[in-house]
Design brief:
4-stranded antiparallel sheet, about 600 residues, elongated, about 50% helix, single chain, 15 helices
Length: about 600
């Protein structure tokens, strides 16, 4: 009878090692009798390869390769030692382990290569980001320098815009020096008071440009943008009739009475930027607590307007800095002007009395004759000495002295005023005739070019009724500021109009070449001559004005002295502004050329 023995706890790995050592060769050989099956199992389990499926397409992958010729040579030499099945299995397992180690090292090298590639990409990205940051900085500086250059060019040419003076004041506040350090006499946020809604919208576009390119003063330009947006909204409310024009604060809503609007404006204007921020925080805390009896609508309306006054405080801060430096420059300029005027008067006085002797006349050494005796009335009448006594210029104030040309101009103006008062015709002729030979040369040169295909002259005054009136428009007489210095004259011109047939789908259906459709205007070529323009750096301008009919518009050309405006009535059609289709606007050598074609009509059913 078998006795039951209770198994004691044991260490499983230790037993496994002991069992491995106690295994007999016979038992092991019996376990690996089928070497081929063991080989297939190892390939399938360790490598995942089978004869039917492997990446090499080998149907005999798991079979052992036997080098028969080598074995024959070794057997002939007595060196052949056949291996047992255990040795073959051991050899096969070692090769499998070697293959696995090779794959492991290959995977490690791939991971290492990926890490190196990632580090290289990160390093390249850092370099690229650094270069891109430098490039962005240079681009912003380039655009800012161009904006400053355009601003200064407009200021030098006398066509500055309000925002140009604001940008100039900002540069002055930063310590830059200009030949003229004058700035706006009022804070920039007051510019929007007298502007219409279109002008405010244009200013907003310019401010947005400065916000984008001027990173150093972005807070200032963002404050200007906030003020411009508030002004734009206020103009829109005024236009719609929802707000009173000229109010100190607009857009407060129905929660604020009109009688306290000015008081709120004065209160907020008197606060600094920090005080306004503290007031906003205090109002927000009070609104969150919302005690009983608190007029929340009033305080919400006031809190909504505090950011506007914070922006105004930011703008005022920079304006005051620029104004302080501008005032110093003005004082220095006035002092220099006073010193220069005093030196000029002193030099003039010394020059007038250089030839007058300082000693008592009568001496023989100085070459002057003895003291003259006064003539009596009878002798003075006989000798004919009636010339007045020549007095020095320093005896009179410079403002009391008259310029001969200015005196002649004033005299001519007084005469013309008197003649007009009594109904007479004012003579426009001057003592000097105007030389217009240069105008004639330019006109003759342009006329010599002839006409192109389908072109006719467009130089005569317009005739016909309102619907058929085309050509030059006789403008009303206009008074110019420079009329006292230069005689106004009408510029010469030689224009062409291009006409032709429009063979659209409709005309192709209803007309043919024997019975063509009516000709229509296809384009214009204007040549206006300004050879004697005083300010040649300022090009003439043109603009389109409304006409008395919907089918036509008036094209007006304007230039500086001494030329008057000239206008033409043309068809009201959209212009083709592409240079590929003949658009040209150039002012060169005293000739303004404006060439354009009108867009074609597209007929659709």
């Amino acid at each position: 009878q078998a006795s039951v023995v209770q198994a004691e706890p044991c260490d499983t790995p230790s037993l496994a090692r002991m069992a491995g050592r106690s295994r007999s060769p016979v038992g092991r050989g019996a376990g690996v009798a089928n070497v081929k099956k063991k080989r297939k199992d190892l390939f399938s389990k360790e490598l995942g390869y089978k004869d039917e499926s492997n990446p090499f397409g080998d149907n005999t992958l798991t079979q052992k390769f036997v080098w028969k010729k080598k074995n024959e040579y070794l057997q002939a030499a007595g060196l052949y030692r056949p291996s047992s099945k255990e040795q073959e299995v051991t050899k096969m397992e070692s090769k499998i382990r070697e293959i696995q180690q090779v794959k492991k090292r290959r995977d490690e090298r791939e991971v290492e290569r990926q890490l190196l590639e990632q580090q290289r990409l990160e390093h390249d990205k850092e370099l690229h980001d650094e270069e891109y940051g430098e490039w962005l900085t240079k681009e912003e500086k380039f655009h800012l320098d161009n904006a400053k250059a355009r601003t200064m060019l407009r200021i030098e040419q006398g066509r500055e815009r309000p925002l140009d003076l604001v940008a100039k004041a900002l540069m002055i506040a930063e310590g830059e020096h200009f030949e003229e350090m004058t700035i706006l006499d009022k804070p920039p946020h007051q510019l929007f008071v007298n502007m219409n809604i279109d002008e405010v919208e244009d200013i907003m576009d310019e401010v947005n440009t400065f916000v984008r390119i001027d990173a150093q003063h972005r807070d200032f330009w963002q404050a200007m943008r906030y003020i411009a947006n508030d002004s734009y909204e206020g103009k829109r409310r005024e236009k719609a009739g929802r707000s009173k024009a000229g109010a100190a604060i607009s857009g407060l809503g129905p929660g604020v009475a009109e009688g306290v609007v000015d008081e709120i404006h004065q209160l907020l204007c008197a606060k600094s930027k920090r005080e306004l921020g503290d007031m906003l925080v205090e109002i927000n805390d009070s609104l969150k607590a919302s005690p009983a009896g608190m007029d929340t609508q009033f305080f919400e309306a006031v809190a909504a307007k505090i950011p506007l006054y914070v922006a105004r405080a930011e703008v005022d801060h920079w304006h005051e800095r620029a104004k302080a430096k501008s005032d110093v420059w003005l004082e220095k300029k006035e002092q220099e002007a006073e010193e220069a005027e005093a030196a000029r008067l002193k030099a003039l006085k010394a020059q007038e009395w250089d030839d007058v002797p300082s000693g008592k006349p009568g001496g023989e050494s100085d070459g002057f004759s003895p003291e003259l005796e006064p003539l009596d009335d009878f002798e003075e009448e006989d000798t004919g000495i009636y010339s007045p006594v020549l007095e020095p210029l320093s005896k009179y104030h410079p403002e009391d002295l008259l310029d001969p040309d200015e005196d002649l101009r004033v005299l001519r103006q007084v005469r013309n005023t008197i003649i007009e008062a009594f109904g007479g015709a004012v003579s426009t002729t001057t003592s000097q005739s105007i030389d217009r030979s240069r105008d004639d040369e330019l006109l003759a040169a342009e006329r010599a070019k002839g006409m192109g295909s389908g072109e006719v002259a467009f130089n005569a005054a317009g005739k016909g009724d309102d619907s058929e009136f085309h050509g030059e428009v006789m403008l009303d007489k206009k008074r110019y500021e420079w009329e006292d210095k230069y005689k106004p004259r009408k510029p010469r011109f030689f224009n062409r109009v291009k006409t032709g047939f429009e063979w659209n789908k409709y005309n192709q259906t209803h007309y043919d070449h024997d019975n063509p459709p009516p000709k229509i205007v296809q384009g214009y070529k204007f040549n206006i001559f300004y050879p004697d323009l005083i300010d040649k750096a300022k090009a003439p301008t043109y603009h389109v004005e409304k006409s008395d009919t919907a089918d036509t518009v008036m094209l007006r050309f304007s230039a500086g002295p001494p030329y008057e405006d000239v206008a033409f009535k043309i068809v009201n059609r959209e212009w083709n502004l592409s240079h590929k289709f003949g658009f040209r606007v150039v002012f060169d050598r005293g000739v303004l050329q404006l060439y354009f074609n009108v867009k074609r009509w597209r007929y659709r059913r």
